[in-house]
Specification:
The protein has 6 helices and 9 strands. By secondary structure, the chain is of the alpha+beta class. A 5-stranded antiparallel sheet has the order 4-3-2-1-5, with no helix packed on it. A 4-stranded mixed sheet has the order 6-7-9-8, covered by helices on one side. About 15% of the residues are buried. This is DNA mismatch repair protein MutS.
Length: about 180
């Protein structure tokens, strides 16, 4: 049990209250908050706060030395084979495919999106493009599952979620194995 003295800086254990001790009566401690409100606590509800932060000259010199060092740049290393590979993006959002999607039913929209995906995937295979990103959005996942079903029909492709930082959860990347 700590004995508090007038002028001590204290904080309440179970609350976000701090202040300076103004009065001590037995186990009751009165403190003045930063906002100027007097509050009373049991001495077991308070903890002494130290204002002393001591830093040696050596520690200051170490920090200065670190700050003066030039920051190392972290370059993303790209494999020579991947350096010149074009990455194809196909946005399957319905408003990117047709001017006015309102007269289309959900079934027609889905079929249009799947036909576009198949046509673009066949184009990429024909042009020997190794990576294609299909942007399908998150939604309820119907288009994504239908795309996966389409991709499973191809023997020379591998598909996985695209880069999360760039696309979030709404895109799938397809890698096409080229038979040279």
């Amino acid at each position: 049990m700590t004995q508090f003295e007038i002028g001590d800086r204290v904080e309440a254990i179970d609350d976000v209250i701090s202040g300076t001790v103004t009065q001590v009566s037995g186990h009751m401690v009165t403190l003045m908050t930063k906002d100027g409100f007097p509050m009373q606590f049991q001495d077991t509800e308070l903890v002494l706060v130290s204002n002393d932060i001591r830093v040696s000259n050596f520690e200051v010199a170490q920090v200065k030395k670190e700050k003066e060092l030039p920051k190392k740049r972290t370059n993303k290393t790209v494999k020579p084979k991947e350096r010149n590979l074009p990455k194809m993006e196909v946005d399957l959002h319905i408003n990117q495919l047709v001017k006015n999607p309102k007269p289309l039913s959900n079934f027609e929209m889905l079929n249009l999106q799947l036909d576009t995906a198949k046509r673009q995937l066949d184009f990429a295979i024909g042009k020997r493009i190794q990576k294609v990103v299909f942007i399908h959005g998150v939604g309820e996942g119907v288009l994504k599952e239908e795309l996966y079903s389409l991709f499973r029909k191809y023997e020379n492709v591998k598909y996985y979620d695209a880069d999360y930082q760039k696309y979030g959860l709404g895109a799938t990347e397809v890698y096409i194995f080229q038979n040279y």
